[in-house]
Every structure is written in C-alpha cells, then in structure tokens.
Amino acid sequence: MRIKKGDKVQVITGAYKGTIGEVKQAFPREDKVIVEGVNIVKKHQKPTQQNPDGGIIEKEAKIHVSNVMLYDEKAKAPSRIRYEIRTNKEGKKEKVRIFKKSGTEVK
C-alpha cells in the first residue's frame, strides 16, 4: 500500500469526491484508510461509566485505498507516485516516494 498515516490525500470517487484530508490511520491488510473529515457515520453508543449518557456520535469510517490519491501541494492536484532508491548521509540505501507530476519527494 502506497499511502501511509499522516499523508495528505484527495478523495477521487464517491460522495466525498474532491475532499482533501490527512490520513489518520492505515489498514494495509484490508487496503483501507481513515481520512480526516471523510465518510462520516453516526454510531449509537451505549451508556458506560466514562459516558453515562450514551447517545449518538459521529466518527470517520474506513474508505478503500483505491478511492484516494496522494495530494501534491506543489502541483495542487492528486498525483501518482514512483519509488526511487537513494543513499542517505550514512551511506545506507533508502526507498523514497516521489510525486510523478512535480517530481518532489513525499513528505
């Protein structure tokens, strides 16, 4: 999965199409992510000791990773990514994600 926690993504299909948000959590085994402000669902909470009133809360639900793309700040558009293997200052090789549109490194 090419999308990680903390990445800025744009929803490309569905009811939230065009929405830009940050990935809160990634689930690589399920190929799903939770994006801030996207796929809001209402959940009924039973009363507990921490929340004696219970009630209905709104929270973000998982969305399939194929419905989002990494958002490129420089190009101001969603972009695919490519990988490049570079050597860092210590001489170790590291895999780096790079936007295809602008050629900048994914932060």
From TrEMBL:
Sorted alphabetically, which SMART domains does this protein's record hold?
KOW (SM00739)
A GO BP term here is:
translation
Any single GO molecular-function term of the entry would be: rRNA binding
* GO cellular component term of the entry, any: ribonucleoprotein complex
Any coiled-coil regions, as ranges: none
Q: Which residues form the KOW domain?
A: 2-29
Subunit note: Part of the 50S ribosomal subunit.
Describe the task this protein carries out: One of the proteins that surrounds the polypeptide exit tunnel on the outside of the subunit.
What is stated as this protein's family in its record? Answer: Belongs to the universal ribosomal protein uL24 family.
Listed name of the protein: Large ribosomal subunit protein uL24
Organism this protein belongs to: Dubosiella newyorkensis
Q: What is the lineage of its organism?
A: Bacteria, Bacillati, Bacillota, Erysipelotrichia, Erysipelotrichales
